[in-house]
Specification:
The complex is a heterodimer of chains A (about 325) and B (about 325). Chain A has about 325 residues and is of the alpha/beta class. Helices cover about 45% and strands about 10% of the residues of chain A. Chain A has a 5-stranded parallel beta sheet with strand order 1-2-3-7-6, sandwiched between helices. In chain A, strands 4-5 form a two-stranded antiparallel ribbon. Chain B has about 325 residues and is of the alpha/beta class. In chain B, about 35% of the residues lie in helices and about 20% in strands. Chain B has helices at about 5-20, 55-60, 70-85, 100-110, 110-115, 145-150, 160-175, 220-235, 255-265, 280-290, 315-320, 325-335, and strands at about 5, 25-30, 65, 85-95, 125-130, 155, 180-185, 190-195, 205-210, 215-220, 240-245, 250, 265-270, 300-305. In chain B, the strands form 3 sheets. Chain B has a 7-stranded mixed beta sheet, sandwiched between helices. Chain B has a 5-stranded mixed beta sheet with strand order 9-11-10-13-14, with helices on both faces. In chain B, helix 8 packs across helix 12. The longest helix of chain B has 15 residues, at about 5-20. Chain B is globular. Chain B starts with a strand and ends with a helix. The interface between A and B is large, with 49 and 45 residues.
Amino acid sequence: MQLSRDQLLSAYRRMRTIREFEERLHVEFLSGTVPGFLHLYSGQEAIAVGICEQLDDDRDYIGSTHRGHGHCIAKGVDVKAMMKEIYCKKNGVCGGKGGSMHIADLDKGMLGANAIVGGAPPLALGAALSAKLLKTGGVAVPFIGDGAANQGTVAESMNMAAVLKLPMVFMFENNGYAEFTAASYATAGSIEARAKAYNIPAVTVDGADFFAVYEAAREAIERARNGGGPSAIEAKAYRFWGHFAGDPQRYRAAGETKELRENHDCLKIFAEKVTQAALLDQAEMNAIDVEVMQLIEDAVAEAKADPQPDPASLYKDVYVSYP
Amino acid sequence: MPIKTYREAINEALRQEMEANDRVIIIGEDVAGGAGGSAGGGEAAGGVMGITAGLATKFGRDRVIDTPITESAIIGMAAGAALTGMRPVAELMFADFIGVCLDQIYNQAAKFRYMFGGKARTPLVVRTMIGAGMGAGPQHSQAIYPMLTMIPGLKVIVPSNAYDAKGLLIQAIRDDDPVIFCEHKSLLGDSCEVPDEPYAIPFGQAAITRKGSDLTLVGISRMVKFCNEVADRLQKDGISIEVIDIRTTSPLDAATILESVKKTGRLVVVDEANPMCSVASEISSIVASDAFDYLDAPIKKVTAPHTPVPASPTLEALYLPTPDKIEVVVRDLLEH
């Protein structure tokens, strides 16, 4: 597998955009300007980007989680419209009625972040069924945390996908914690083994290694597009923040997140690999960083300045057929 | 005009809409039946009540999809398929099973359009069987439409006869919103005149099944049949009852009910569901609020009690509203 320079630059830009988006949101949230609950994706960028860079806007779908900002950015949802949505403003991608946990953009193949843990995998079955029946060659990818892996919907979805041979990739992100409880406590056996029990090909990869995720996803997507049915990937992930923005993280040993940021930062690892292999140089990544910083700065400023939703919108769009 | 059963009318609606639109598919447990069996894998059931019989043979198993017993995945898959271009009709065999898939209905399908800022369309139909009367016990007999009626984003349909079942199901399949279509298991064999050609009955339009001037009886699903029977009995005594079949609990045609009560001054609502926070209580509330000055007597409800549905046929008969129970309440109210 050899990615082109353009592909590498695109992947880096997406991962950096997610990181800056989330780190800035953390600051903004603590300043009290962001309503609701926020679940930040910092540290897990290589997983979303490693697979979504290989998905098409018009035929491939993802189903996301409550920790969905990274998935949205990776699938191409407009960053400024996302920021406005997180601020619950009028011109947010969902008009301010979804908020952080429900960002969706069907035109981009994004079936929605989902505030119900384990909510999205059954919906992804449907997107895969549509792709199969309409013969689009499309693939559906539900993202599933280690917490959701224990939900019945995930077991049901893996069985259904295997039975109906649906074009899917179950992308598990095991970041070690379901809220405040360790996956080592809450997850019996292994996620990879559970998928294999349904005869679903499954691998475990280091989610901080973009290239490992990319390669596993490439194989799985190819299998799905060629009629080979579902696959599963368990990516070991590193959650740099708590369950939610503001989480005091009393369940984590002192220094744990510092260690993750030092040794398991997917952006640092990516930069080391591409510079060592002389695929990209640091200066061009630095240039991207500057552009991304400006984009996020503008996104926050525009989100703060955006008007509140029109009061009449409270009553709109409950149904298609009547107001 | 041909006479068809409720079961046949539903089957015909499905067949005609599947013929008209390739994107209409059926998903559920044993909707064909027989997959992988030692008899060779041909269609073996057409649903536990035979409602989808013949459809897999006609349209193939790609469009009539037998699933594992996995309600969350069935409803979620149907919702996801609806969101991405199909028009699925999912079968939730017994409405009681909603307990294991309610999230996919009320947190997912019902909310997509609103929480995605008006950009989603979810043309999903969930066909499901409701109602007591067959001794099927507490987990196969409930009339659970009130808990669905209260959910914004859903439309809830309660056909009381074969003619309505066909027209309302065709409307449900053509509709771009998620629809819960409640088929009463004790009505499956009932028949009436049903045209051969496809027709759609709009949602939110109640039917007046008996014209009258002394008292308004509002019925839901099977209870409409009982209300009609009571109206016919009382007519022999010179009592004129107006019977309204609401046909859909959401949207609810309050205007037709209010107009009738303004004329008759008396209202009895008959509902097989449990009484608390029910469609019957909602109708009573609307009339008390918007037609209070026209009432000559208190509003009365005839409903199931606040209990589960008992399995014993003896107790089940006590549980259910019956024409006799309705008649007693109506005669009392006319004396008021």
